[in-house]
Design brief:
The longest helix has 32 residues. The chain has 4 helices and no strands. 85% of the residues lie in helices and 0% in strands. By secondary structure, the chain is mostly helical. It has a domain of 52 residues.
Length: 99
């Protein structure tokens, strides 16, 4: 009875150990096979990140230039009639909701 339990114990541990060895081997092989693809993808993503950073720098430079954005002073905002302001705000909200 005890020997049957020990046999099942050893059999179970052997099966689990064999499965873990097989899993480790498969993961190592896939790592070697896909290494070049991972490098290419990393290069692509780095290029995209650099492009995004350049676009941000260009946008920051545009904002630093004078008259690059409309004035929001009370005199400028008060010069429009309320109907025009309502139409502009409604259009902006509709555009935002469509995104």
């Amino acid at each position: 009875m005890i020997t049957d339990g020990l046999i099942v114990l050893l059999l179970g541990m052997t099966v689990v150990f064999a499965f873990l060895i097989a899993l480790t081997t498969v993961i190592s092989l896939l790592s070697r096979v896909l290494r070049n693809h991972a490098r290419e993808e990393e290069g692509f993503l780095m290029g995209e990140a650099q492009k995004k950073q350049e676009r941000r720098k260009a946008a920051a430079e545009r904002l630093k230039q004078p008259n690059s954005f409309p004035s929001t002073s009370p005199q400028t905002l008060g010069s429009h009639d309320p109907q025009t302001l309502t139409a502009v705000i409604t259009a902006a909200l509709n555009l935002h909701r469509r995104r």
